[in-house]
Amino acid sequence: MKVTETKKVTREIHVASCIKCGSDDVQITDCGYSSFNMGGGTCKSCKHSVSDSCDISPSKDELARIWNKKNDIKALIAAQQKKIETATSKIEELKALDQKYRDAKAGLKRTGQGFDLDARSKRMQALNKKGERAVGDFNSAFPVGSPVTLELDGGHVVDTTVSAPAQMMCGHPSAWFSGVSGSYHIGCVRPK
Ligand SMILES: [Zn+2]
User: Fold this and answer.
1) I need a surface site. Which of 3, 47, 63, 79 has the fewest CB within 10 A?
2) What's the 26 CA to ligand 1 centre distance in angstroms?
3) What percentage of the chain exceeds 70 in pLDDT?
4) Domain range spanning residue 153?
C-alpha cells in the first residue's frame, strides 16, 4: 500500500528593498480580480508601487518577481551590465566587418591573427646584419607583384603582393606592399 503525506513548507522569498526610498516595508499583494488579475508590490513607506498582470491565484513568488524586476538594484545593475556586454560584442562585430570591407577594397586578405613574434624578430635581426645582401636576395625572390604573406605589427597576418622593390631604409631592409601603408621590414614577410 501507499500512504500520502501533505507537508506545509515554509520558505523565504526574496523581496527587494524599495528602489525609491530603500525601505524593506513592502507589501506583496494582488488585486484579487477573477479575470485580468493584477499584482505586485507597494512600499508602505513611500507608496511606490509596481504591478503587472498575474495569475488569478498568484503565488508570492510570482508577485515578488514582479516587484523585484523593478526594484532589485543588484539585478538591475546585472541587467545593465549585460547590455554593455552585448553592445561591446556588437561593436567588435561591426569593427571586424568594417575592417573586412576596408581590407577587401585594399585588396588585402587577412588570413589570421597572431604569429610567432620571436621568430619574426630573429628574422628581422638576421636580415639587418645582411643589409644590402638581404635587399638583393629579397628582390630576386620576391619581384614586384609577388604574392606574400605579411606579418603586421598589430598581430594581423595578411596576404598581399609586393608593390615596390626592397631597399635599405634607416639601416633596415624594407619593402612596400599593396594595401599596406608605409614600408615594412622584409623580415615581416613569412618565408616561402
Ligand atoms: Zn519606498
Assistant:
1) 3
2) 8
3) 99
4) 109-188
Question: Ligand 1 center to residue 17 CA distance, Å?
Answer: 8
Which three cell numbers, joined as nine digits, stand for 71? 526594484
Q: What total of structural domains would you count in the chain?
A: 2
CB atoms within 10 A of CB 139: 18
pTM of the predicted protein model: 0.53
**Residue 183 lies inside a defined structural domain of this protein:** yes
pLDDT band at 187 (very low <50, low <70, confident <90, very high): very high
Clarify whether residues 118 and 50 are in a common domain.
Answer: no
Q: How are strands ordered across the β-sheet holding 49-53?
A: 26-30, 38-43, 49-53
Among candidates 152, 188, 151, which has minimal Cα distance to 166? Answer: 188
- 75 Cα to the center of ligand 1, angstroms: 18
In a domain, 85, yes or no: no
Residue 144 lies in a domain: yes
**Domain limit, last residue, from 17, 51, 71:** 71
The residues, any chain, with a CB within 8 Å of residue 117's CB and separated by 6 or more, are: none
Instruction: Compute the distance between CA of residue 106 and CA of residue 108 in angstroms, rounded to an integer.
Output: 5
- Collect all residues with Cβ–Cβ distance below 8 Å to 152 and sequence separation of at least 6: 158, 180, 184, 188
Let me know whether 66 and 119 are in one domain: no
Dump pLDDT digits (tens) for 7-22: 888 889 999 999 999 9
Q: What is the pLDDT of residues 114-153, one digit of tens each?
A: 788 889 999 999 999 999 999 999 999 999 999 999 998 8
